[in-house]
Specification:
The complex is a heterodimer of chains A (367) and B (504).
Chain A: H1 4-29, H2 34-45, H3 48-73, H4 81-98, H5 103-132, H6 136-154, E1 162-163, E2 170-171, E3 183-186, E4 189-192, H7 195-211, H8 213-223, H9 225-230, H10 235-250, H11 255-262, H12 273-283, H13 288-304, H14 316-359
Antiparallel strand pairs in A: 1-2, 3-4
Helix pairs in contact in A: 1-14, 2-13, 3-7, 3-10, 3-12, 3-13, 4-5, 4-6, 4-10, 4-12, 5-6, 5-10, 7-8, 8-10, 12-13, 12-14
Chain B: E1 3-14, E2 17-28, E3 32-36, H1 43-50, E4 58-63, E5 66-68, H2 73-78, E6 81-84, H3 96-101, H4 115-128, H5 144-157, E7 162-166, H6 174-189, E8 193-198, H7 201-207, E9 210-215, E10 218-223, H8 230-238, E11 256-266, E12 272-282, E13 286-290, H9 297-304, E14 312-317, E15 320-321, H10 327-332, E16 335-338, H11 342-346, H12 353-358, E17 368-369, E18 372-373, H13 375-388, H14 405-418, E19 423-427, H15 435-450, E20 454-459, H16 462-468, E21 471-476, E22 479-484, H17 491-498
The chains are: A mainly alpha (367), B alpha/beta (504).
Chain lengths: 367, 504
């Protein structure tokens, strides 16, 4: 049996190749050379300026990916990452902008507010699922809409927001320098200091899930609610806690931008983190390293799409590519799963056949 | 009389398992043909093949002398074969008539359902075959026996001439069984053929015209009820002499390990499942709980394990009232639990074996070290279980799902006994496992009992109960109706007690 790592890498590579082939087909139909376009994307995407931008984008994507992954481990489809993130970063910005504190304390407070608000918002869906049997998909989609409306309402200048003179942009008050996180100079650009926390989040996710009893309870409940319950796990509570935890992580998605770049929440903060996060968790197979590669790859595609228009190719082709990757990855993982299962059953079959000869003769002679 | 269905040399392999091998069967028109065998003997696979749900690897099926190939149930329905599943497939909030016509509604031009025509046809069927059901009643209002009649009507409505009934009596109380048997006789008197799958020998002897015995995936014998008896059938099924009741020299200890006092359980929808149940299990004692399935056994187990709360009364383990304890606390206080449905409740099927070793023990040493899991200990003890209990697996890293049922069960038994619990709840510990695994598990239970473990054994297998139990408690209708001494009780007396009748 080939190692799991081998098959774990084959599947995403196969998915990416499939989607590249599809995109090439489309480009050829338009009489454009796929090789030239690919080369242009790589040249542009890997320019120092863009690498820095991609790292900053990927950092946010990564956190959304981990938030989705921890949900997937529980068989929860946390499509509420968008709402959790938006509400969290908004309140973190509001609280951060209220006062000046000693530097470390101020930043810590802002991060904590983000995690707590995201966690609370996520736990609503968790509560509804456990106590009322409502699918987290439905409630999260509604909670996304509520969060967006709530933030828009609170961001009005008469409430918690501000409007700069002569600008249409609405934002929260600027956070004092004590609540700002320094950037790291890299390739002539500035990387968000929060990227260090991002690495830490990935590490903590892995350790918690694989090394702790809490993580075991979580995975056991995700694998089989009934077996976990019979094994003494408070399975409903685990579902609730996981949904809250996923929300808390989602609440940190916008922190890099807030702490190191904009220092206030504004209506120009990006949306769509939920779908991206879910796609990345799928592509990275819920593994912290896999999600990291997926997040950077996604950010690379986003950035390098910018060069396509210059080459007369609509940049929406990248959206098609991302979509095809997600579709093919699901298929590829299913195929790999079946191959693994077959190999395993063969092994088990031969193991029992050889052993059984000496033990019993129960109709196994033909096996 | 020639055979209406003939099965010749059927073979079906699943990866690593031979489910059916050289199966031969001849079923005559108008008879009730019983197919008996232990759990896992291949009866269900054979019926799935005959009903078109599974395609055989090789072999022939003849219906009315013509060779047929069933690719799906539609093919077999078209030839008049219908299946009444063990688990009913009915929509609760629809009427009997709606359930019966669901999927084959007679429609007029434009897709309008011809309700009146359907009702007329259903009423004719119920009259002809003496099926006592009301077409307009809501299925939710029906009892188990009536639901089964709806299932039968459903099959007849589709024009079935050959009915396959998969363990139809498993869910019925005795009076309902009698009623079902009357219905079946009625059906055969109208020329229909019945294939009756069961592992209950008494029933088979009383109703069947012909009996085929399956063992280890193959048909081993075909007998007529008048020329055989229960003992012979059982030996054909098991393939050897029945195990003798063991001699146990030691007396059970006196220490009360499990004590249930006057426990009642009422479901959230107000059905009273357990009424005033009182039980005691002592150290070094196996208390067998006998009963027809569905008489409160599952709820009794779940109550002891803290998965449901007793509505009144209490449960104590070693003198501590655990009525309000969580399942976690109960396990950690020294209770092992072999669940009756191992794949649903006992294993994480898509997790490796060594992770399954942790399940149920994730909160205490040696599997856990405070907040952290002890992976090394889990792997080490999994290796021990594989050796000690002869679990056939290439390694402890394969998924639990890859193992056969018997090996899965051996692993669970090893896991639940690993911490030498004071009390072991063993629910159907050898259901569906092969004879070798059964002997091994029985030995484990007996040894543990000799070492002083208190064991509550819930089983539907009378052999198992007689073989292992020091005392036999009989549960019926959610009540403990008798506590018997297995040495002074015959299987017939136990059977009577299980149906709720008083023993003179």
């Amino acid at each position: 049996m080939k190692s799991r790592i081998f098959w774990g890498i084959v599947a995403p590579v196969a998915a990416i190749v499939t989607s590249l082939l599809l995109i090439s087909g489309i480009l050829l139909l338009k009489h454009t050379s796929p090789v030239d376009i690919l080369k242009a994307m790589i040249d542009y995407g890997f320019s120092p300026r863009n690498i820095v931008a991609e790292l900053n984008i990927a950092s946010g994507y990564y956190i959304a990916g981990v938030a989705a992954a921890i949900g997937f481990k529980m068989m929860l489809f946390n499509i509420g990452i968008d709402g959790q993130y938006r509400l969290a970063v908004f309140f973190a910005a509001v609280v951060g902008g209220l006062f000046t504190l000693p530097p470390v304390l101020h930043v810590t407070l802002i991060i904590l507010v983000g995690a707590i608000v995201g966690g609370l918002w996520g736990s609503i869906a968790g509560y509804l699922k456990v106590k009322r049997g409502i699918s987290e998909v439905i409630s999260n989609i509604m909670l996304n809409a509520i969060a967006a409306g709530l933030v828009a309402y609170l961001l009005q200048p008469t409430r918690l927001g501000e409007q700069a003179e002569g600008s249409n942009n609405l934002n929260t008050p600027i956070i004092a320098p004590s609540g700002q996180l320094p950037t790291i100079p890299f390739l002539g650009g500035q990387i968000h200091g929060f990227i260090i926390f991002t690495v830490f989040i990935g590490l903590a996710y892995w350790v918690l899930l694989n090394k702790s009893t809490f993580g075991f309870n979580l995975r056991a409940t995700g694998l089989s609610f009934k077996a976990a319950r019979a094994g003494g796990v408070n399975a409903p509570k685990m579902i609730f806690v996981t949904m809250a935890l996923s929300g808390a992580i989602a609440g940190l998605t916008g922190m890099g931008t807030l702490l190191s770049e904009t220092h206030s929440y504004s209506i120009s903060f990006p949306s769509g983190y939920a779908l991206t996060g879910l796609a990345l968790a799928l592509l990275g197979r819920n593994h912290p390293v896999g999600i990291a590669f997926a997040a950077y790859f996604w950010a690379f595609l986003d950035r390098s799409a910018g060069v396509l228009d210059l080459n007369g190719v609509p940049k929406e082709i990248i959206t098609i590519m991302q979509g095809t990757i997600v579709l093919s990855i699901v298929v590829a993982y299913e195929i790999v799963k079946r191959i693994n299962k077959q190999q395993e059953q063969k092994l088990v079959g031969s193991a029992s056949a050889t052993l059984k000869v000496s033990a019993t003769t129960e109709g196994e002679a033909s096996a | 009389m020639s055979a209406i269905v003939e099965i010749q040399g059927i073979e079906k392999k699943y990866p690593g398992v031979v489910a059916n091998h050289n199966v031969n069967l001849a079923i005559k028109k108008g008879e009730i043909h019983a197919i008996i065998g232990e759990n896992g003997a291949g009866k269900s696979t054979l019926m799935k093949i005959l009903y078109g749900m599974v395609m055989p690897d090789s072999g022939t099926i003849l219906v009315d002398g013509k060779k047929v190939i069933f690719k799906s149930p539609q093919d077999s329905i078209a030839l008049g074969i219908g299946m009444v599943h063990q688990h009913f497939m009915l929509a609760d909030n629809a009427s009997v008539l709606e359930n019966v016509i669901l999927g084959s509604e007679p429609t007029s031009f434009g897709g309008v359902i011809q309700v009146d025509a359907a009702r007329a046809k259903l009423i004719e069927i119920t009259k002809n075959y003496g099926l006592d059901i009301n077409p307009d009643q809501l299925v939710a209002e029906l009892g188990v026996g009536e639901r089964q009649r709806v299932e039968i009507a459903k099959v007849l409505y589709r024009g079935a001439q050959i009915l396959i009934l998969d363990e139809p009596t498993a869910v019925l109380v005795p009076q309902e069984v009698d009623e079902l048997f009357r219905n079946l006789k009625d059906l055969t008197s109208h020329g229909l053929t019945i294939i009756f799958i069961s592992h209950k020998l008494d029933e088979v002897l009383s109703i069947a015209d012909d009996i085929s015995v399956m063992r280890a995936g193959t048909t081993v014998a075909s007998v007529i009820p008048s020329k055989t008896n229960k003992k012979e059938l059982a030996e054909l099924m098991v393939g050897r002499e029945l195990p003798k009741r063991r001699e146990v020299s030691t007396k059970p200890g006196l220490e009360k390990i499990l004590e249930i006092k006057d426990a009642t359980y009422v479901t959230p929808d107000h059905r009273e499942i357990l009424h005033g149940v009182s039980l005691e299990v002592h150290s070094g004692e196996i208390l067998g709980v006998a009963g027809v399935e569905g008489n409160g056994q599952s709820e009794l187990i779940e109550m002891i394990m803290g998965l449901v709360k007793a509505s009144s009364g209490n449960v104590s383990i070693m003198g501590h009232d655990i009525s309000d304890s969580s399942s976690r606390e109960i396990r950690d206080s020294g209770v092992g639990y072999i669940p009756q449905d191992r794949q649903r409740d006992g294993l994480l099927m898509s997790a490796p074996l060594w992770e399954n070793r942790i399940l149920g023990h994730q909160a205490t040493a040696p599997m856990a070290n405070g907040f952290w899991l002890n992976k090394a200990a889990a792997k080490k003890d999994s290796e021990r279980i594989v050796v000690d209990l002869d679990v056939r697996t290439p390694s402890i890293n394969v998924m639990a799902a890859a193992l056969s049922g018997g090996n899965q069960q051996k692993f669970i038994v090893g896991r639940e006994m690993a911490d030498k619990p004071s009390l072991l709840i063993a629910a159907q510990p050898t259901r569906g496992v092969d004879v070798g695994a059964q002997a091994l598990i029985w030995n484990q239970l007996i040894e543990a009992r000799l070492a002083g473990m208190a064991i509550l054994l819930i089983s539907a297998d009378l052999d198992e109960l007689f073989n292992l139990s020091d005392r036999l408690a009989v549960i019926s209708g959610g009540k403990i109706v008798a506590v018997l001494d297995p040495d002074k009780t015959t299987p017939e007396q136990l059977g009577l007690a299980m149906t709720g009748e008083k023993i003179a």
